[in-house]
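Moderator note: this is an archived Q&A kept for reference. The question asked for a predicted structure of one protein chain; the sequence and the answer are reproduced below.
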Amino acid sequence: MDFFASGLPVVTDEAPSSDTAPSEDDDEVVAIIKELLDTRIRPTVQEDGGDVIYKGFEDGIVKLMLQGSCTSCPSSIVTLKSGIQNMLQFYVPEVEGVIQVVDEEKEKELL
C-alpha cells in the first residue's frame, strides 16, 4: 500500500529493463547470474509487484536494485539476503554476497 500512497505512477512510458540481457562483454559468472535472475528470481519477485534490476558484479558481490513494491516492503532485506543471495550462492560459488543499490534520484522523489 505504501507504493500507491506515494503518488508515483503505476505504469510509466519507460521501456522494460533489459539489464539481464546477455552481453558479449559478460564473463561466464555474470552470464549465469543474469540467467538465474531472469529465469528464477525475477518472476517470483514480480508476482508480488516488485522487480530486481541487475547493476553489476564486482569482487564477489552482486549489486541489485529493488523496484516497485519491493522498495517500500519491510521484508525486502530478508528477500535480498535469505532468498536471492542464498540462491545465487548455491548455483554460483563465486558469489560472496548481495547488496542493494539505491537509485538516488528515485529516492529523492519519495521524500
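Archived answer notes: The two ends are 16 Å apart (CA to CA).
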